[in-house]
């Protein structure tokens, strides 16, 4: 409620240009998704051995034993088409289309395509994190959490409006989330699924390495049907 200086006149308030972040709990896929992604994480750990050997050579054995894989993340190759993740992949794709349609876009003109779909697990020795970034050339981004708890890392989202960030003022209560908050974080649990617009800057807090932290990350792009149809005709 907004009032004028005499506290008698109430002004109508219209909030515009907000940013949605959607969450839903889907624990029914956690066990099968962990099993399906184990092989990808193991493959990433194997490929990381070269980097770890280089780190050991640089630091020396004594200092290397203090850090080992500290600060690293194990990233997989693309998960697209894995039959054990088919239901999850289809659910994310259909939901992403529905969200864009809900926002008022004419999605009859577009088809959703994955640009990225991968699993990652933070370092066993802690320090895993992601600095603030966006995934350019995408419309929907999101995460599906497989291994996490209240002691692991978590996603932090930042206000995507550059002009708004330039004019922010200190908040009276920094713990209270409001329309003017410059960032917000979510503490996920296994099965938490998050969707958000691809333009939203986000990061992951530094992981302490106390418990395993694994999640699937995805990005999707809405491609005009005329481009899709033209590409099919070029084959």
What would you call the quaternary organization? single chain
CATH class: Mainly Beta
Count the domains: 1
Radius of gyration: 21 Å
Computed structural class: alpha+beta
Helical coverage, percent range: 25-40%
- Name of the CATH superfamily: q2cbj1_9rhob like domain
The fraction of residues in strands falls at 25-35%
Q: How many helical stretches?
A: 6
What's the total count of β strands?
12
Sequence-ordered SSE layout with sheet pairings:
Elements: E1 2-3, E2 10-11, E3 22-25, H1 30-47, H2 49-59, H3 61-67, E4 73-75, H4 86-102, E5 110-122, E6 130-133, E7 140-147, E8 155-158, H5 162-166, E9 183-185, E10 192-197, E11 202-204, E12 214-224, H6 225-233
Antiparallel strand pairs: 1-2, 3-10, 4-5, 5-12, 6-11, 7-10, 7-12, 8-9, 8-11
Helix pairs in contact: 2-3
Task: State the main characteristics.
Jelly Rolls; six-stranded antiparallel sheet; 12 strands; globular; alpha+beta; 235 residues; 29% helix
């Amino acid at each position: 409620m907004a009032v004028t200086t005499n506290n008698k006149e109430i002004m109508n308030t219209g909030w515009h240009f907000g940013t949605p972040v959607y969450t839903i709990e889907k624990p029914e896929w956690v066990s099968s998704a962990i099993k399906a992604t184990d092989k990808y994480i193991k493959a990433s750990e194997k490929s990381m051995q070269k980097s770890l050997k280089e780190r050991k050579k640089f630091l020396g054995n004594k200092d290397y034993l203090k850090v080992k894989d500290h600060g690293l993340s194990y990233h997989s190759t693309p998960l697209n088409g894995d039959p054990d993740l088919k239901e999850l992949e289809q659910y994310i794709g259909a939901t992403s289309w529905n969200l864009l349609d809900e926002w008022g876009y004419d999605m009859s003109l577009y088809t959703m395509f994955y640009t990225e779909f991968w699993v990652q697990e933070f370092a066993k020795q802690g320090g895993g994190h992601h600095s603030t970034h966006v995934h350019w050339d995408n419309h929907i981004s999101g995460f599906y959490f497989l291994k996490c708890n209240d002691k692991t890392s978590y996603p932090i989202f930042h206000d995507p409006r550059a002009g708004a960030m330039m004019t922010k003022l200190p908040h009276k209560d920094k713990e209270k989330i409001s329309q003017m908050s410059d960032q917000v974080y979510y503490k996920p649990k296994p099965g938490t699924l998050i969707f958000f617009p691809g333009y939203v800057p986000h990061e992951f807090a530094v992981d302490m390495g106390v418990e395993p932290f694994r999640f699937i990350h995805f990005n999707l792009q809405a491609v005009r049907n005329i481009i899709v149809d033209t590409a099919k005709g070029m084959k």
